[in-house]
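[Discussion] Sanity-checking designs against the backbone

I'm trying to build intuition for which residues belong where. Below is a structure token string of 244 positions. I'd appreciate it if someone posts a full sequence so I can compare it with mine line by line.
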């Protein structure tokens, strides 16, 4: 993390889990477990039907509501995930559509959380950085430096999502640093320094601190562990560590 130049973000991605009536009790339990002092922004991206409940319940716990996807023509929540590997894989979303969706969100004042990440085959073929660089360049195409300031990038290696296999802190740092280098080449040093890059893929209460201690990992995008208030609160607490 680097708190001087970037904000730290812990974002939960509930996918197709939870029910609307479970949002309030979840937030109450989360609130009881959160550290008094918080060093990060907290976001919970829920299925669309639960966004209103999250906006309401999240307010006094200072948890921002987010959506999990967006139509390239529609309105949405405060944050929205785009380009998640599960949408790329199961809904055939390509980089051009991810780019169009990110731009549509920015136009409406919504912060896109843009997901990128390689498959196991690509990693084994030593194509990780080429592939992720391509995804980042395509997703940011035509987005100017002032709009870039409102974007968040999430590096989620596909082989680590929902598998319990986390990238090592070194592997995750290497790619997040590489993403920042790509952004530096596109926009220059200052904008690159200011972009928050999250890691996602089996981040949990145990491994969060080590991942978040890496200089280019500015937070997490959390699936499974974001459904457990105590674990999610522990990940938030893991951002309370010394950083630059
Ligand atoms: P897990 O934390 O369950 O591996 O999910 C990661 C993810 O896909 C978040 O978007």
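Best answer:
Here's mine. Compare freely.
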């Amino acid at each position: 993390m680097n708190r001087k130049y970037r904000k730290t973000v812990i974002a939960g991605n509930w996918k197709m889990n939870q029910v609307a009536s479970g949002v309030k009790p979840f937030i109450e339990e989360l609130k009881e477990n959160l550290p008094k002092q918080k060093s990060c922004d907290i976001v919970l991206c829920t299925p669309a039907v639960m966004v209103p409940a999250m906006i309401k319940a999240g307010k006094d716990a200072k948890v921002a509501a987010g959506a999990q996807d967006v139509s390239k023509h529609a309105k949405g929540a405060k944050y929205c995930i785009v380009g998640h590997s599960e949408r790329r894989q199961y809904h055939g979303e390509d980089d051009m559509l991810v780019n169009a969706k990110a731009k549509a969100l920015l136009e409406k004042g919504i912060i896109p959380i843009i997901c990128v990440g390689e498959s196991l085959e690509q990693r084994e073929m030593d194509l990780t950085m080429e592939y992720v660089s391509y995804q980042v360049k395509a997703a940011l195409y035509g987005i100017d430096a002032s709009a870039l300031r409102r974007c968040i990038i999430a590096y989620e290696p596909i082989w680590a999502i929902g598998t319990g296999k986390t990238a090592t802190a070194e592997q995750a740092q290497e790619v997040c640093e590489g993403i920042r280098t790509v952004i530096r080449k596109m926009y220059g040093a200052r904008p690159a320094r200011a972009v928050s890059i999250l890691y996602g893929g089996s981040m949990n209460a145990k491994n969060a601190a080590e991942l978040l201690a890496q200089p280019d990992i500015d937070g997490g995008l959390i699936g499974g562990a974001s459904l457990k208030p105590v674990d999610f609160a522990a990940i938030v607490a893991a951002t309370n560590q010394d950083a630059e």
